[in-house]
Predict the structure.
Amino acid sequence: FLAKDDYGLQEAHAEIVPVDQPMDAHPLYPLPEYRLDLPRRAARDAKGTTSRNLSEHPLSGKRVKITLVARDAAGQEGRSQPVEMVLPAKIFFEPLAAAVAEQRQVFALDTAQLPYAIALNEALTIRPEETIPNLTHFLLLRSAAERMRLARDDDQMRETADYLWEIALGIEDGNLSLADRRLREAQKALSEALERNAPDEEIAKLMQ
């Protein structure tokens, strides 16, 4: 990205919004956060590259509109021309893992679609001896279906959506994906702490 401002740039981010999502949809998660890494605060000119992994967000794989937004010291805002693209998604090579991830995406983007997600789960387990050779995976899917049926509010639905994502990762890559996710979460927490000049004790704990 390139940015220029006479007062000095204070903050910049990418605004990412869905293109095809119905207006009355009720998503479980906020829109993706994508902060741009400015070379330094209050710079009048900035040039940089920012890379973030958004493949865990339910919008991954969907068409989105991206607009770069920058604010200066005077509170003024500048916006780029929007660009449409398909948000990169994690590629699942195991069909069962992909099917579980789809269940999660369906109701995470619109809670009204929860019954459809349950129907997808039921379709997967009609003939498990042919489609789900691993008994643990079968039991996890049955457990996820029960969680979906019992979910009564957004918090419970989010917990269930997170549970389905963990199942999908476990089927695809085993514990390696989960360990990678925890590492990235720790890295993000450390980066944010350094940015806000957190106390040494907090930094040390996050480093550990």
Observations:
- The chain has a mean pLDDT of 89.
- Helices lie at 95-109, 114-124, 128-131, 135-150, 154-173, 175-195, 200-207.
